[in-house]
Known about the structure:
By secondary structure, this protein is mainly α. It has one domain. The protein contains eight helices and no strands. The longest helix is centred in the last third of the chain and has 34 residues, at 162-195. The relative contact order is 0.13.
Amino acid sequence: MQLRVFSKLFRFFPQCAYNAYGNLVTAATARCTRATRFAISILLAVPLGASMIITGIASTESCLVFNQANQTNQTSSIFLPGEDQVRIPAWLMVTGAVLLTSPAVYFVYDKCWKSGEADPVFQRGAKFLVISYLLCGLILSVVGFVWVFGAHLDSVCGAESFAYRFAVFALITMNIVMDVWICYKICVVLYWAFLSDD
Length: 198
């Protein structure tokens, strides 16, 4: 249904749609070379990943502080005493380390899988690496949301701590970057589907 609406809209206003949307997507795609995309991935991943690791390391000791009473009452838990306090720093360190590898994974994707320049064996390896990396990112994202927002009421590493606030900032920043990238890819696909002369 939506495709029919878009098709009819573009038939009624083909020149307007082609000039405005088409020129924008064409210019963005032409300027976005492999070097540009790699530089963007470095500029986004390295500062955020490094700051996540540094914040995780710095906040580990402060989040380990817990009451002796809390330690004795937690014996029925499946977690070790104080383990729930280090979830945010642990998540920050692991996710930051994974985020630091994203430019390399993106380069492998762009060079070996997307372009089709590599041997079939390398293409399959690149495909496996990229899909595994994306699944790992999805798992870390879900774990991050559960652990970070689950610690909101924690007395030591809760909403008042820097580690919590930075973890919320990191989660939101990563989701905004992913959403912008997905929207860009959707725009490119729509351009190819409806407006491209090819």
